[in-house]
Design a protein that fits this description.
By secondary structure, the chain is of the alpha+beta class. 48% of the residues lie in helices and 11% in strands. The protein contains 15 helices and 8 strands. The radius of gyration is 22 Å and the shape is globular. InterPro entries: AK/P_DHK_N_sf, BCDHK/PDK_N, BCKD/PDK, HATPase_C_sf, HATPase_dom, His_kinase_dom, Sig_transdc_His_kin-like_C.
Length: 414
């Protein structure tokens, strides 16, 4: 665990009081396609540095606002110290602008350390809140985690985007190693159907190991549709939704009925650059702690996307339909609550055992200790909603469930 940080309470309070600028997919591609020039890399570093300190300080304040007995829990206290540590390693950089490539290299090393430090935040918090469930209500847990994990999405994206741009722009990176469709962590030609097939294979293997059968997926609609989005987010969401559909289908005895996946690409709708970016931004300040501040200035600036934004912000909706018997009425109101699970405490604790491999599918297909703890669906919704998407569930108890995943992309960079 990182050592205790030395950053002062006054500095934390100052940073936490600063406005937190909205993050859009447009911002993440705003420095152009790699390899970037030195000036563009410096711009990316300073953009990253302009966003992270206030966000980290704000999360520290929110952790401090939890009941003392909760913050004193070793797991939650570890996360608190991780945030203190990350803010302290940024302090030498945000005091002044990064102006040299030597500084940019040191800053990038700090970003790599920050990302590594917070890799296991979700399972650690999950375990901490499981241990503290006597001292904090499920509603308060959900309220805190909904804000905290959504804020973590943005913080991690900001850091990982600069890391990806730096690595893709390194002199030793051969031209053939660059994916011309990628701008950092964003794939500008992402095809959801391919990710569906990858998730189907992975979840199907687990099902076959546990149950001896594997459902199949039939795809229809705009199967070849592409848009610009973040692959790891889509992989996490689709793995969770397919896992739920497969499990319900098998346990209801309907594994011979395929899961039906339908793709619908929204038609292009003419939008101004400002309207397009607003659609791609987090807007509910009361829930997500972000605002629209800065968008008008952004759209009127000469910087932007390194090229004009076209007139549409494409979106894709994916419907996953199963014959798994639906969701019981007494369960349905709780499906978006963190820490709600249909497993008992012993099952949740043992969800990573080989016999419960299907429940261990979390975190983009990698097993972790949040399996069985009820984080999968609400966290998937957090990923979907971060850039203006949504997840909606319609259940016919006794028959099956339809899940609608809608995602906003970004207009092309030309």
């Amino acid at each position: 665990m990182p050592s205790a940080a030395t950053i002062s309470d006054e500095e934390i309070s100052r940073l936490a009081s600063l406005p937190r600028k909205p993050l859009t997919l447009a911002d993440l591609v705003g420095h152009g396609k790699p390899p970037l020039s030195n000036d563009a890399l410096l711009s990316s570093a300073n953009f990253t540095l302009s966003l992270l300190p206030a966000r980290l300080a704000h999360r520290i304040q929110k952790l401090r606002n939890l009941p003392f007995i909760v913050v004193a829990n070793p797991n939650i206290n570890r996360i608190y110290n991780n945030y203190l540590h990350s803010l302290s390693i940024l302090e030498p950089f945000y005091q002044s602008k990064i102006v040299s490539m030597e500084e940019e290299v040191r800053f990038t090393e700090a970003m790599a350390e920050l990302v590594q430090t917070h890799t296991n935040t979700i399972p650690i918090l999950a375990q901490g809140f499981l241990e503290c469930r006597k001292y904090i209500t499920p509603a308060d847990i959900t309220r805190f985690l909904d804000q905290h994990l959504r804020a973590r999405i943005g913080t991690r994206l900001i850091a990982e985007q600069h890391l990806a741009l730096h690595m893709a722009s390194a002199p030793e990176t051969a031209e053939h190693e660059l994916d011309m469709h990628n701008i950092g962590v964003i794939d500008t030609s992402l095809q959801p159907a391919k990710i569906i097939r990858s998730c189907e294979a992975f979840v199907g293997d687990i099902c076959e190991l546990k149950y001896g059968v594997r459902p199949r997926i039939d795809m229809n609609g705009s199967v070849k549709a592409m848009f610009a989005h973040i692959p790891v987010h889509l992989e996490y969401i689709l793995t969770e939704l397919i896992k739920n559909a497969f499990r319900a289908t098998i346990e209801s005895g309907n594994e011979t009925h395929p899961i039906e996946v339908t793709f619908a690409a929204a038609p292009d709708v003419p939008l101004s650059k400002l309207d397009a970016l607003k659609r791609l931004s987090v807007t509910d300040e009361s829930v997500l702690d972000f605002s629209q501040e800065g968008l008008i200035e952004y759209c009127s600036s000469s910087e932007g996307l390194g090229g004009p934004l076209n007139s549409s912000a494409p979106s894709i909706t994916i419907r996953i339909r199963d014959r798994g018997g639906g969701i019981p009425p007494e369960v349905l109101p709780n499906i978006w609550s963190y820490s709600f699970t249909t497993f008992n405490a012993e099952q949740a604790t043992n969800a990573n055992s080989a016999s419960d491999g299907l429940q261990a599918i979390t975190n983009g297909g990698n097993p972790s200790s949040i399996a069985g703890l009820g984080y999968g669906l609400p966290l998937s919704r957090a990923y979907a909603e971060y850039f203006g998407g949504s997840i909606a569930v319609q259940s016919m108890y006794g028959w099956g469930t339809d899940v609608y995943l809608s995602l906003q992309g970004i207009a092309k960079v030309v």
